[in-house]
Write a structure and sequence with these properties.
The chain has about 500 residues and is mainly beta. It folds into three domains: about 170 residues, Sandwich (Immunoglobulin-like), CATH 2.60.40.420; about 130 residues, Cupredoxins -  blue copper proteins (Immunoglobulin-like, Sandwich); about 120 residues, Cupredoxins -  blue copper proteins (Immunoglobulin-like). The chain has six helices and 32 strands. A seven-stranded mixed β-sheet has the order 12-11-10-14-19-16-17, with no helix packed on it. A six-stranded mixed β-sheet has the order 23-22-25-30-27-28.
């Protein structure tokens, strides 16, 4: 029902169009009017259409352990195809964990181990990466450590780190882009004692929002083409197109994940109202950040609180996306909040959320330059320090226990990138020579770099030894070669 696998050569050719995702001076692309967007994609068959805000938001089910001991929760997951009604009235084949689109949520606790047995019922290899986690090398889900069709693999997650909104996704080299696009991702919410002690919104008022963009045609097919960000104009939240969510006039906590392959989001409320960011990739910030917008590149997460008590019952409030590419009336809207009732609210956001660890003194400085061919050549590639990914090569040797400062530059003039490091949560020291803003003041594992930008990050390698990846988390760029391997010993 879905398209054939993309060869490496065709993937590389298609990947060059990702350079069009930004406008001049490294700015994320402006939103387009419907007419200009249609002119840009006139040669492509139109996607299926559906009314916006016509379906209710649903939340991914929480996966239940198959068994538990005093120290460990055990889970069983099958990677499999399934058919879902994403666009009302159309049936769409997707790739899933346990038949769920997106995948089910795993809720874990710091200090309590999780063991997941993954069985691959697909017809291609797969590899499960727990993004943002400190895990042994064999459970990291590297691109070459794959699970063959019909085989199983057990992944062990010690959870010896503070609470954080992690997520799991496929990472098998050359197929991870298509697999994730077709649905192979899910949230892994790791909590700790400090977080559970805070009076934050909880229970049904703590809601995951998994964002993605898709191109579903009029037959219901989920169309996959490498680098095709222009035609992925249907925005899904938790697998539902432009849903509405009925809320009470009180505070809600939202765990927001950008699970797209290529799309950046700049989220804002339609009335321009403020909300409170309380966390990022690596868990809670030290102090809350009041803001009117939230920027997320692919793979990044944010933890926010919206207080709906300031709105009258009957208010409808749209969550906007203030960046392109794509038509503003489609990709410029994400979902709608409908305030339908009053409610008591005993939750609040403390002025102090956590104490971040004091960074150790760095003894090593390294430089990484991200670049992809954007000159129109037939076989574009993507590079880190002018090298494409070679799984048999060690690019960076790191001494276990050391602290390092990495300076990362996006050398492109049009293409955006971001940078994800496996195994470690890092601190952002500078962005373009200036201190990061409050949204980037916590622990991170993925950092955005628009064209021409430079960031400096500080990392401490004190958990596991072995070989791990660092790479651009725009999946198509990774498939084009923008990945490297570090050896920690």
């Amino acid at each position: 029902m879905f398209s054939r696998k993309v060869s490496r050569r065709s993937a590389l050719k298609a990947g060059v169009v990702t350079t069009g995702i930004v406008g001049g001076a490294g700015l994320v692309a402006p939103l387009l009017t419907r007419g200009s967007a249609e002119a840009a994609t006139a040669a492509v068959a139109g996607p299926a259409t559906t009314p916006q805000f016509a379906v209710p938001l649903t939340t991914p089910p929480v996966l239940q352990p198959t068994s538990s001991s005093s120290t460990t929760d055990y889970y069983t997951v099958t990677m499999q195809k399934a058919v879902k009604e994403i666009i009302p009235g159309l049936r769409t084949e997707v790739h899933t964990y346990n038949g769920e689109f997106p995948g089910p949520t795993i809720k874990a606790r710091s200090g309590r181990r999780v063991v997941v047995n993954q069985t691959n019922a697909l017809d291609t290899v797969a590899s499960v990466h727990l993004h943002g986690a400190e895990v042994p090398m064999d459970s990291d889900g590297s691109p070459m450590n794959t699970v063959a069709p019909g085989a199983s693999k057990t992944y062990t997650y010690p959870n010896n780190q503070p609470g954080a909104p992690l997520w799991f996704h496929d990472h098998a080299h050359h197929v991870e882009s298509e697999h994730v696009y077709r649905g192979m991702s899910g949230m892994y919410l790791l909590s700790d004692e400090n977080e559970r002690s805070l009076p934050l919104p909880s229970g049904s008022y703590d809601v995951p929002l998994v964002l993605r963009d898709v191109n579903i045609d009029t037959t219901g097919e989920l169309v996959y083409t490498m680098g095709d960000f222009l035609n992925r104009t249907t925005i899904l939240v938790n697998g539902r197109p432009w849903p509405y969510f009925q809320v009470a006039a009180r505070k809600y906590r939202f765990r927001v994940l950008n699970s797209t392959n290529l799309r950046f989001f700049v989220l804002a409320l339609s009335d321009g109202g403020s909300f409170t960011q309380i966390g990022s990739d690596g868990g809670l910030l030290a102090t809350p950040n009041t803001t009117t917008q939230l920027k997320l590149s692919p793979g990044e997460r944010a933890d926010i609180v919206i207080d709906f008590s300031r709105y009258d019952v009957g208010t409808q409030l749209v969550l906007l996306n203030n960046t392109g590419p794509g038509p503003a009336d489609l990709v410029g809207k994400v979902m709608r909040f409908d305030v339908v009732r009053d409610a008591f609210d005993f939750s609040w956001v403390p002025n102090r959320l956590r104490t971040l660890p004091t960074p150790a003194i760095a003894t090593v400085n390294r430089t990484f330059v991200l670049r992809m061919d954007e000159d129109g050549r037939a076989d574009p590639m993507a590079y880190i320090n002018d090298l494409t990914y070679d799984p048999n090569r060690i690019d960076t040797k790191v001494a276990w226990g050391s602290t390092e400062v990495w300076t990362i530059t996006n050398a492109n003039v049009r293409a955006p990138h971001n940078f994800h490091v496996h195994l470690v949560q890092f601190r952002i020291l500078e962005r373009n020579g200036k201190a990061p803003d409050a949204s980037e003041a916590g622990l991170k594992d993925t950092v955005a770099l628009l064209a021409g930008e430079t960031v400096r990050i500080q990392l401490t390698f004190n958990s596991y030894r072995g070989t791990y990846l660092y790479h651009c988390h725009l999946f198509d760029h990774g498939a084009m070669g923008m990945m490297g391997t570090m050896q920690i010993a």
